[in-house]
Amino acid sequence: MIRGVLGRFSGRSHSAKPPRVGELLEANRIEAGPDASRGVILYLEDITVSFDGFRALNALTLYIEVGELRCIIGPNGAGKTTMMDVITGKTRPDTGSAWFGQTLDLLALTEPEIAQAGIGRKFQKPTVFEHHTVFENLELAMAGDKSVWKWLYARTTPAEFEHIEQVLETVRLTERRDARAGALSHGQKQWLEIGMLLIQEPQLLLVDEPVAGMTPQEVERTAELLSSLAGRHSVIVVEHDMEFVRSIARQVTVLHEGSVLAQGSIDEVQGNPRVREVYLGV
Amino acid sequence: MSTTPFQGNRLAAALRADRGGRIFLSLLIVVAVLTPVLNLAVPGSSFLHLSGYTVTLIGKYMCYAMLAIAVDLIWGYCGILSLGHGAFFALGGYAMGMYLMRQIGTRGVYGDPILPDFMVFLNWKELPWFWHGFNHFAFAALMIVLVPGLLALVFGFLAFRSRVSGVYLSIITQALTYALMLAFFRNDMGFGGNNGFTDFKDILGFSLQAPSTRMALFLCTVLALGGSYLLCRYIVASRAGRVIAAVRDAESRARFLGYRVESYKLWVFVFSAVLAGIAGALYVPQIGIINPGEFSPANSIEIVIWVAIGGRGTLYGAVVGAVLVNYAKTYFTAALPSMWLYALGALFVLVPLFLPRGVVGAVSELRSRLIQGSAAAGTTP
Predict the structure, then answer these.
(1) Which residues from B are below 8 Å from A196, CB to CB?
(2) Where are the alpha helices (DSSP H) in chain B?
(3) Which one of B257, B265, B266 would you mutate to disrupt binding with A, by most A Cβ within 10 Å of its Cβ?
(4) What is the pTM of this model?
(5) Between A60 and which of A47, A164, B271, B334 could a Cys-Cys bridge form, CB atoms 3.0 to 4.6 Å apart?
(6) The total number of structural domains that make up chain B
(7) Domain-embedded: residue B118
(8) Interface pTM (ipTM) of the complex?
């Protein structure tokens, strides 16, 4: 929160908004989603973010491929959360560029526009609607026209119903569909929240520490769930738990002091002497 | 619950899941049938006879119940704690009062065919512009809906757009009703100053003193109360209703999902204000008086107390609270006039402590415990 505010006030060098004339075109472009025909869904180049002189991100450059499942690891303060904030529009970088596919400049879009364009973010702390059922939570999260008048008499259509059932299946909550979300276990809430993102059919999913506080069984199921999403969606997972990272990741990026320290398979990364020094402390 | 894709009539489905609502509506029908019979058909000598005074009293409780439902809709379901809903009630009442004043005509003390008595008394020569049209019932009926609705629209638009919420919103709603009270107290506002309006003669050509007219008004109130309940139940059971509850529980999350939270809040706030206005309009001809005291901040706080005591977020709980507290008020103010405010204060402290979900919450808890208890007794050999 405070960071977001700080980010907004810290001088940003890029000229924020596209010209008004092209606004309609712009809306169409957002609606159409990213153009990832080159096989890359996210381009982050030379991103720098400073908070009162502290460089949270320091010329960070990172590319995510379509359908990839990427794990980001790094010690506290390495800039993992700030990176997520930049991608979702919560924090504006001082310099650098961020593109969603080849056509959407993330730095020129607002938070809701970015969400609409197809980037979904799961926060660390699950925030589901506790008094609504699992089914209703997914229904609320569904994409589409959300005006009051329509929703006063709108019914859940068979197609929407089907879609919700599908997502319930994916996140394995079919049996709990009529339970109040507040009655779910911590792990189930996390899955429900992932489901609430999935139902909006995002191209890119950002997942912040999904397994913190989960039981070993829940960790295992979460790993299966995230692995099953790769291919259909591009997924970025920020996580501390090395066992978990080992179980899901094909590609791991290590952040340190705001820039990429190492990148590669988990074994390569764990074998890297610099990584062992700064992160694993060995 | 909308967990099946093809539902029949949604209101019917909502009522099937609403046990308290079914009980309330059945009781309302019983009252609607018994009251006219006991009042008009049973002779005055019989102990079963219901006096005109009692009929008016029940009518008054029902207007309050409608007002409580309006407050429960925004507070219990949308999390907007309005401490100024009495203002919308009073505005609806004033709009009805203006019509009734114009109906008096030459039967007033001063016998002026156009000007109400208080204007003659103030030496006014002409009817102020905003009094024109109120000699027609249809116009007055329109104003009963429009005036509270528009005020809520403007007020809500400014408040919700600036993201004023929580206790700050409650405080400015208090300020709103207080400002209106001060304004209506002024003689030169043209609303009768501190005396307000009274001495009404007839409505739509029927004498307000006639038992049949009073019974017709009573039945209109029954219909309005039942109708409000059904409308509110429909709203909270709709998809919009689920969004409204989502706004109550996690506003920023709902916004993040792409809902225009302000529109939802504004819509439900205006609807609630209109219901309150209609309740006020039904209240005035039965009670026979409206004055600026209706705008008093304490009145608005009392409405919230009814809802809290009955059990918020249930709709029927609001009705239970309004009737219970007002019955207690009628009793106390007659038996121990000085004790009423203490009793009200004590209720406000004790109910949240011991009955956090209100009377209906406590009853349903007791009921589920009894069922569990008997089930447990049944399984033990």
Answers:
(1) 257
(2) 10-16, 19-36, 52-76, 85-104, 117-121, 137-161, 166-185, 211-237, 239-249, 251-256, 261-287, 297-310, 316-335, 340-354, 358-379
(3) B257
(4) 0.85
(5) A47
(6) 1
(7) yes
(8) 0.85
